Amino acid sequence: MAFVQPPVGPVREIKYDQIVMAPGSISRTLPIPGLKENAVGFKTIGEAIYLRNHVLAQLDAAASTDDADLRRRALTFVFVGGGYAGIEAMAELEDMARDALRYYPELKQGEMRWVLVEAAQRILPEVGAEMGAYTVQRLLGRGMDLRLNTRLDSCVDGLVMLSDGDVFDAGTIVWTAGVKANPVLQLTDLPLDSRGRVTCAATMQVITADGTVVPGAWAAGDGASVPDLTADDPTVTCAPNAQHAVRQAAQLGTNIALVVHGAPPVPYKHKYVGSVASLGLHKGAARIFGMNFTGLAAWLLHRTYHMSGVPTLNRKVRVVADWTLALFLKREVVSLGQLHSPRVEFTEAATPAPARPVAREHTREAAVTS
Questions:
Q1: pLDDT tens across 235-279, in order?
Q2: What band does 146 get if pLDDT is binned at 50, 70 and 90?
Q3: CA–CA gap between residue 89 and residue 268 (Å, rounded)
């Protein structure tokens, strides 16, 4: 019996034969002053849409002011975390902003400041040292400021303070420094590991601390601690990324069918094929089957890989059509910021207007007359 709390209404009791826990993950944050109030993640579709609109809105703000400090703040973009999310977010948004500047004659490319803050010595460890170094050189060549071996100490009111002593204002702060298991797992009675993930066997069946299989319970994805059978160390678990989650889902479905029909489940084992990263339009870095790819070739591999993960033929055709049109048309750089607060204009319209003040000239006339 499972007790489920829906978004609306009382708790429901649901009987089940098999239960699968796959709540995914959320951003892993640190208790940095100002982070909660001023930063945004880059993990969900909503966050990505917000950031696109926000960056374009910052260009609008910078172009509409003559105040040097306000302009500098609006055109300063900080990304914390040098993994896939941080590098791709910064590279793609910088590429979009660079393209959008053609519509802002008041702004110059050199006024924009893009800063990456990474606590480790390298970026993109997933694509190997050589491709990581290549990415660094490409980003530096685009005028980006890469701060390795550096931490974000504070960002109260948008005032960024780094561990290397640098202090500056930023209108955009993006946090991409890792993920953690969804805290909803803490509300269950399933066995969890030290990182808050459901403990699993290689078959993705939930197991207790002593290795006992919990009947009818399964887990997969970022919230599951599944042993990585391709690693030499038996304590290593599968990384929380889409490459594992998608493949685990398929294997888990097969395993449930096997168990229901009385057959033993099959252990999940996925050999690492490679990694791809987009660095903007027609730019990328990739390592596939031990071979390195850069530039347009890597970008095409990146698009192909992600297309393979798009569900349903209907959705694939729509995405391919959009990408094909993008090859011949200019990039869309209109901000749709009202998506994030659609009721603001209506609320203002529904608010009674304040009484108009009496004109000063009329006041003086009244005083002379009296």
A1: 999 988 888 999 999 999 999 999 999 999 999 998 777 788 889
A2: very high
A3: 31
Q: Under a CB-based contact definition with an 8 Å cutoff, are residues 175 and 40 in contact? A: yes
SS3 assignment, position 142:
coil
What mean pLDDT is reported for the chain?
A: 90
CA distances from 216 to 24, 206, 263, 309 (A): 20, 8, 14, 28
Q: Is 312 exposed, middle or buried (0-12, 13-18, 19+ CB in 10 A)?
A: exposed
Count of beta carbons in the 10 Å neighbourhood of residue 35: 17
For 28, residues 6+ apart whose C-beta sits below 8 A from its C-beta are 177, 178, 179, 180
Cα-based torsion angle of the residue sequence 336, 342, 346, 347 in order, rounded to the nearest 10 degrees: -120
Token pair, residue 271, equals: 């050999």
Q: Can you spell out the DSSP letters for 28-80? A: -----TTHHHH-EESSSHHHHHHHHHHHHHHHHHHHT---HHHHHHHTEEEEE
Query: Strands across the sheet with 274-278, in order?
Result: 274-278, 284-288, 291-294
Written as six digits, the tokens of 93 are 């948004």
Give the residue among 264, 256, 274 at the shortest CA–CA distance from 219.
256
C-alpha–C-alpha distance, residues 74 and 112, integer Å: 9
| Cα(218)–Cα(198) distance, integer angstroms | 9
